[in-house]
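thought: fold this chain, then report.
action: predict
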Amino acid sequence: MRLSILGGRLVDPATATDRCADLHLADGRIVAIGTPPQGFRAERTLDAAGLVVAPGLVDLAARLREPGFEYKATLESEMRAALAGGVTSLSCPPDTDPPLDEPGLVEMLKYRARGLDQAHLYPLGALTVGLKGEVITEMAELAEAGCIGFSQAGAPVVDTQVLLRAML
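observation:
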């Protein structure tokens, strides 16, 4: 599909772009900024005057309710809401129920997110078992399962030696 987004404020920190211009896309790819390419005919035109046009945003602390609190929201509903707000990537802390302290939980969450084919999911693994701050999780296995980092999600680490060992 060919799309023209007209009059929006283009913001892209990666290219130091911050200006008002028209954006022209073909099959989901930008083909021109400003004047459309010769022969380009948009099938759809959006008026973006007064709006910001930017690459997908990243939520670095998406408090997902799944697993454990699906009665509040599901992974699907949260990802749909994120996309509606322009968020295409979510990093979620490990304070779910149960906490993301086992590779199987992380794999399950990543599998579900991939199956939804919506926003990208980048989970943080629990630094300590059960987020209790006492015993370090199997961090290498959690990383292999897809965790991009580790967190206590606001829970304290009881012993500073535990924190020191986790950093080594």
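thought: worth noting. Residues 39 and 126 are 54 Å apart (CA to CA).
final: tokens above.
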